Amino acid sequence: MVKQQEHLAGERPAARKPATAEQYERYVGGSPERERTILEQLARELMRVQLKIKERSGAAGIDRAFHAKAILGVENARLRFNASLPEDLRTGFAQPDAEYPVIVRLSNASGARQPDSAPDLRGAALRIQVGTDETHDLLMTNHPVSHARNAREFVVFAKVMAGANTTLRKAVALYVKLPWALGWSTAARMRRNVLAGTRREVRSLALETYWSRGSILWAEAGPVRYRLRPASGTPAAPSPPRGDSDYLSHELAARLAGRDIVFDLCVQRYEDARLTPIEDGAADWPDADVPVVPVATLTIPRQDLDTADARATEIRIDQLAFDPWNTTGEFRPLGNLNRARKAAYEAGSAHRRGYRFITPTPRRNLVVGALLRGGFRVLNRYLPWHRLPTWIGLLNVESIRQVLRRDNLIDTEVRQGPPEAHPVPPPLEDRLRVGRTYDGTYNDLSAPAMGALGSTFGRNLPPVYRPDLFDEPNPVVVSRELLHRDIFIPARSLNVIAAAWIQFQVHDWVDHKRCPPGMQSVEVPLPYGMTWTNTPGGAPESVMRFAENEDLRPAGGTGPPILSANAASHWWDGSEVYGGDETVAKSLREPDGGASLRLENGHLVPGPDGVPITGFRDNWWLGLSVMHTLFAREHNAVCQALREEYPGMDEDAVYRTARLVVSALIAKIHTVEWTPAILATELIDIGLKANWSGPPKNWLAQLGLWLADAHALTGIPGTLPDHHGAPYSLTEDFVTVYRMHPLIPDAYEIADHRSGRPLESLGFNDVQGAATEPLMRRAGLANSLYSLGIAHPGAITLRNFPRALQAFERDGEIIDLSVVDLVRTRRRAVPRYNDFRAGLHQPRLRRFEDLTSDPDSLARLKDVYRSVDDIDTMVGLFAENPPERFGFSDTAFRIFILMASRRLQSDRFLTVDFRPEIYTPLGLDWIARNGMTSVILRHCPELAGILPRTTSAFAPWRPAMPEANTGIRHH
């Protein structure tokens, strides 16, 4: 019968012809990449199922979404392939008479641990251990077909049945919720399959036959389905005793006490897409047409299951994560359900083990949030959020953030298309659970590479790659007309420590690594008649040249080069202090593995080029030296406190804990001190402090958040990690809004903190590069802090870019950093300003007058740009009139409110692992009691009378009274 059928697309190839998954599979959405996105969403839905089962059952923790109750767990079974194994099935580990140890887990299929007498399917999971690096997990159920044709049906069924632990709830789920979700005919078919599989009385799991349902590739033989059936002669089982909720376990224990349990492992070969479909899990492969071929024998040896060792083994096996993708490429699972299992099993297992988390949004928040978003969308046409009363404005900002989280988190990381088989993941090392790694790996334990060194920058907006506009308008003209500083415009609410701080932070977060000078360059044509000297002592040229970024990678191997790898980790992990890899980090520590960082008389150790050896040493100047010196000292102070409090703690543990404490303290300072200083409004102060420690304890705030965003009722450190639907990364758009070079002054006065007496007047070139450390040691940390604390940074606005940075020598090149900033933003495909605004849900500009009312700026903008759509993003951000008392624009603020909380919320060391077991009680107390002022005073107590009394250390300090008739040395 079969031989006469016309084979359809996907027919099994002739014996021994290499078989590939692509011959048989059809991807949802038309491509592996699109299907992967869909299946990831379904995996998150299954995590919600796990939570619902936990809540309904009252379980102590997250359990498996399915097959939660183990009936048997042994690790001494053996699988022996038959001597008569057919020739075409002899491949890989499947060889005649080959024998392997096997771990066996038999279970009930439900996600709830219910009595064995409850209607249910039963499952078998085998882990065949071929060698140290090769295992094969086979998963089966005691019904030949799935109730679901595909992953979507499977997940919908799981959702409607989750927690249906009574007869009434099951009836409502099957006969009301399921038809509503999938339609009457689909629901009827699924009910038939489920009821057919669960209504049978099961007397012993040794007597059940288990089917794979889905297919796997059997190397050159092509696809097969496999099954496990009782060997002939297996003794029958008695009727289940009344009242024994665990009778299946007891029956197996009694059976194994007297004899082996033996099963035959069999396969059915693929014939064609109609008779033996790959993608339809609800379709049977009929035995009458597709012969069942025995290939091996599974033997569970006679043993006593009522011993301490046996019980320990069962517990150990119950913690394993069985996954059909734990195999090799030759035996890769096939079909939509199996591909979904890869995402689902990995997510479910990680959820169960506490490696991955999900935080469902209460239904009231969904309803109220939608109403607020609609209301504020109308209101903001007439009144922006920053002109509303504080508490209304806070709700407005929260609703904006919800929209941005929904629409403006774009995952760019290049991933495998078709899923690939893999070995069983090794056990997680304890050190990875309790401390930050050097390179940012294993912050998310379920996705170790997320946010790590070398992972790509994400996007908040779809990239706009326009090579034809790289030089339009000419970036040198833009710089000269709109950015160049003629007169210093100060930001009078801040001090220069605030400018140093943000560069200190950016160096922790982002680093686009540059090619070595001369290897690969960007060339910018100069306006007619202008020349530029690109290297010290070089000849004038008609182009401006500077090093290209490394690692511009095309998406998926095709398309424009718009993906760039971060040469720092994306996490808030203090890498600017500690280094971004193991070699650098260890070189910064004291010799012989000491926990403290190396200092010379309290100062950083200079390298051969005069710049200190520290975690991030590029773009070095006095402000960075102050920050790095201060926090290196702070690390050493934490180390000393830990040694005294916990004398049994070894030096590696002291280092690891101190790094956690200092990194978290830095994150706290940035969140509750620096940001409210540069965005100096009551609304921002409340919002940022609520991010860290929770909202004010008044009934109105609590009620509003309970209705709109219950997750915000505690500070982020009291919540679970949440990536908000996209793997965590910092973004190219985030990099763009943090281009804050106007903060840097061109002139510096070094003064004595005791008398206010000026010591030296210097230009920027005198406080940067190799000149920095001699100045630091000459002036001292206290005087350097004082000098920066009493000085104002520049305002982030047009015509205020530091002159010193417009002809700046770096790595053997002379660059105009303002031109570099413009060119980098264009080449990285960040949308131009008007598209940038629109992508962040702000109204588009229709004319230049919508951006600024300043006559000079308006004239210059019209002279440089043909239309408002051509305005560079950085220029638009600088030109935009910010909200009152804001240090940067409302458009930049949109990126900030999206990404600032994300940097905390995604990081397990600032959420679920922000706890005394990880940080120590001393460490958490250190973070709680300290801020920028106390850090400064710990290392420079002589500054106590100068620091601001009621504001943060980033506000202007009180100058000491200068002595009369004191000369100033000029450089």
Automatic annotation (TrEMBL):
Pfam families: An_peroxidase
Record-linked InterPro entries: A_dioxygenase, Catalase_sf, Haem_peroxidase_animal, Haem_peroxidase_sf, Haem_peroxidase_sf_animal, Oxylipin_biosynth_metab
Keyword match Heme: yes
Region (Disordered): 1-29
Protein name (Swiss-Prot/TrEMBL): Catalase
Organism of provenance: Nonomuraea rosea
Alphabetically ordered keywords of this record: Dioxygenase, Fatty acid biosynthesis, Fatty acid metabolism, Heme, Iron, Lipid biosynthesis, Lipid metabolism, Metal-binding, Oxidoreductase, Oxylipin biosynthesis, Peroxidase, Plant defense
Swiss-Prot/TrEMBL cofactor(s): Ca(2+)
Biased composition (Basic and acidic residues): 1-14
Lipid biosynthesis among keywords: yes
PANTHER family for this protein: ALPHA-DIOXYGENASE 1, PROSTAGLANDIN G/H SYNTHASE
